[in-house]
Specification:
Elements (H helix, E strand, L loop, with lengths): L8 H7 L3 H6 L8 H22 L5 H11 L2 H10 L2 H4 L13 H19 L1 H17 L9 H12 L6 E8 L6 E8 L2 E8 L2 H16 L2
Antiparallel strand pairs: 1-2, 2-3
Length: 217
């Protein structure tokens, strides 16, 4: 599994350009965020389409949970590493650590999909995503599905004295058409991670994922 081949390499470069690099090199074009916005929608569309075709017996609620699992940050970050995205990231001098950041890896994976849609068309983008996700869709019923927010709550109650996690909105970034919410998850007044998302729900889920990554052995 590799990065797709682009007719217009500038689109791929943009998809791999972090805001830190774009700020340091403004003449070299924008960062990946607009392409990520497009790629996020394409990914969810294709994965939902594949799930509907393969599993006509699954109800909509279960289908939605399976889709969420397949396009969540840990899954996309893993795929980003597999196709070599971290090796090609364009990062600012003070942001080299972001190469290993699962959130950035997942975002750039979505940006590459968005860029490929603009470069080669929707059919080519669909085919590329289908090739990556078909094996995952085939095995999705074997996955144990648990909402990260629920998993964190259960873990905290079992191991941290029964205190419930709290979520605090820290910021709202970007224009209205591509708003990015930033939430912090706290347990007993201590921060255990930040999560970003296109909705409060998505940001809460990603914050819970980060907290679980820090808390669970």
């Amino acid at each position: 599994m590799d990065l797709p081949t682009f007719q217009n390499p500038a689109l791929l470069r943009q998809a791999l350009t972090h805001s830190s690099y774009a700020n340091e090199h403004p003449s070299e074009g924008p960062d990946y965020e607009r392409l990520e916005f497009l790629g996020d929608s394409i990914l969810e569309f294709v994965v939902r389409d594949l799930l509907l075709a393969r599993y006509p017996q699954i109800n909509v609620g279960e289908m939605s949970r399976r889709c969420d699992r397949l396009v969540d940050e840990p899954c996309l970050a893993k795929l980003a590493v597999e196709i070599g995205i971290p090796n090609h990231m364009r990062l600012g001098a003070g942001a080299q650590h972001e190469r290993d950041n699962p959130s950035v890896q997942a975002d750039m994976f979505e940006a590459v999909i968005g860029a490929y849609r603009l470069d080669a068309g929707i059919a080519a983008a669909y085919s590329y995503v289908e090739g990556i996700f078909n094996p995952l869709v085939k095995n999705v019923l074997k996955l144990q599905i648990i909402d990260p927010v629920t998993e964190l709550q259960e873990y905290v109650q079992a191991h941290m004295g029964g205190v419930l996690p709290g979520y605090i909105e820290k910021d709202r970034l970007g224009p209205d058409h591509a708003k990015l919410f930033v939430l912090e998850v706290q347990v007993g007044g201590t921060s255990y991670g930040l999560g970003q998302g296109r909705s409060i729900k998505e940001a809460r889920k990603n914050a819970a994922i980060e907290a679980l990554r820090r808390l669970k052995p």
